Amino acid sequence: MLVGLTLIQAAHAKGAVCLDGTLPGYHLHRGYGSGSNSWLINLEGGGWCNDVRTCVYRKTTRRGSSSFMEKEIPFTGILSNNAEENPDFFNWNRVKLRYCDGASFTGDSEDKSAELQFRGQRIWWAAMEDLMSKGMRVAEQALLSGCSAGGLATIIHCDEFRSLFPGTTRVKCLSDAGLFLDVYANATSFMFPTPFLGFIRLYGVQKNLPRICTNHLDPTSCFFPENLIANVRTPLFILNAAYDSWQIQSSIAPPSADPHGYWHYCRLDYAKCSGPQIQLLQGFRFDMLNAIKGFSRSNENGLFINSCFCHCQSERQDTWLADDSPVIGKKAIALAVGDWYFERADVKVIDCPYPCDNTCHHLVFK
C-alpha cells in the first residue's frame, strides 16, 4: 500500500522547516472501524549530520529537504493495513513523520552563512499540532514509535507525546533500534561522542533534552538512551538486536578505528567474524543488557532483545510478522508488542547469546 505525502502548510509560520527551509511532511493513512480513534505515529530514522559540511550535503537529499522526499511510500510492518501482517494496529490512523532535521527531531538554531535551519523540535511540535487538528486530539489510544534515529527521538519525545492527551487515553512508546550505547571503539577510543557532541553544539539541542538528565550530566551524555530510559515516565517498549548491525559498523568497529582492516569482513558479514571479534561483540551485548537493568524493573515497560545481527525490525514485514519472522519463545515481534501494549501479557524477553537463535534475519552487506 502506497501512502501520499502531506506537507505541513502551517509549519513555515512557526519556523518549523527542514534543513534547507522547505516544509516538513508526513504520510497519513486513516483508521476505520475499531481503530478509527486510535493513532500510531512513526518517526522516520536515518542517522545524523554532525557538522556544517555534512548538513549542507544532507539538505540535498530526502533527509534534509522535502523537495527530495518520495511523494508516496509503502506502509509495511507496524504500518501495514493488512490484519494478517499487523493484527493489532492495521486499522488505526497510521502516520509516518518524515525526518529532515538531521538530529532526531531535536534542536532549534540556524547557520545563516551555510543557509541551514536546525528546527527539529519545532517540526515535532508542528506535526503534533497538525495531527491533533485532524482527529488525534480525541484519540482513545496512541502509540509513538520510531526506528534508529527515530527510535532515539521516540525516547526523547515520549513524555511530551503523553502530555498531548488526557489521562484517560492509553499512550505508550516503542523504540526500535534506538538503544545507542556509549561504547569504546575497539576498546581504544570513544567513537559516538564525537558526532553527538558535534550536532549538540551545532543544533542547540541542550535546551530540548530532558532536564532530569541535564541537571546532572552533560548534554552529550543525555543524548544516549542509557541515560534517559530509566526516567521516561510513559510506558516504553525497547525493541533491539543484541548485535545491532549499525552500531557494529559505525561505533564498535568503524573504519576510522580500524586502519588495518581487521574488522572489515566482520563488519559486512557476522559469519566472517573471528573468535576474538565475537567475544568483543558478546561484551557489547552484555553492556546493552546492563544498560536496561533499571529500565526493566518497571512493570509498565517492555523488552524484546533478540540475538540477531540486524537494525530496525518493526517497519520491515519479514521481521515484524511473517511465517519465518524472528521469534523469542515462539512469539514474533508484532505479537510481543501487541501483548505489551494491550496488557495481555508482561513482555520482557531477552534472547540467549549468539549463535543460539536460528530465526534471525541477519543483515549481510556487500
UniProtKB/TrEMBL annotation:
Protein's name according to its UniProt entry: Pectin acetylesterase
Pfam families assigned to the protein according to its UniProt record, in alphabetical order: PAE (PF03283)
Keyword Transmembrane helix found: no
Cellular-component GO terms for this entry: plant-type cell wall
Family, as annotated: Belongs to the pectinacetylesterase family.
EC number: 3.1.1.-
Keywords tagged on the record: Cell wall, Cell wall biogenesis/degradation, Hydrolase, Secreted
GO molecular function: pectin acetylesterase activity
Subcellular location: Secreted, Cell wall
Gene Ontology BP terms: cell wall organization
UniProt-listed InterPro entries: PAE/NOTUM (IPR004963)
Function: Hydrolyzes acetyl esters in homogalacturonan regions of pectin. In type I primary cell wall, galacturonic acid residues of pectin can be acetylated at the O-2 and O-3 positions. Decreasing the degree of acetylation of pectin gels in vitro alters their physical properties.
